[in-house]
Design a protein that fits this description.
5-stranded antiparallel sheet, 5 helices
Length: about 160
Amino acid sequence: METSRQRLALQDAMVFLGAIASGTEQAIGESANSISYLAGVNLGKKMSAGVPQTSDILQALDSTRTVLAKNDYLWLFEAFKTHDQETVVQEDDEGTHVMLVFRDCMIRQSLFRFGHAQKGSLCNMMYGFFAGALQNIMGQESSLEIVHAGENACYKKLTIRRAS
């Protein structure tokens, strides 16, 4: 019962954040995405300070998951491998890629509860969070891009860029 009350309190706060994001996007347009992204980067760096560094992307994702859980953030995600992939981790000239599924995302739930579209400034805050956290944990730049944004889950591609 306590978990249900905590979740409702969190959702109420996130609806408020959804309203702020909606207003900000209307007031300043596309710049809201950049501002939210940078705020997420700062949050990711701050929350992951002191986390041991690793070059292993799956270990880095576990560390990110731990950071989120320790701070009571409900961004549950998992690495995903399609039937035609041999491994979860893929390599190419751009860098290392892992597909992620976000099934229980507090941002998506907040956007739906407020009635605001996905892929806006709050989603960009999440991308920034991952970029900041992974920069601390892996020492490399990364990007998180939406492949599919849905009602029940989002499917995203995480790329850890090769060091230049």
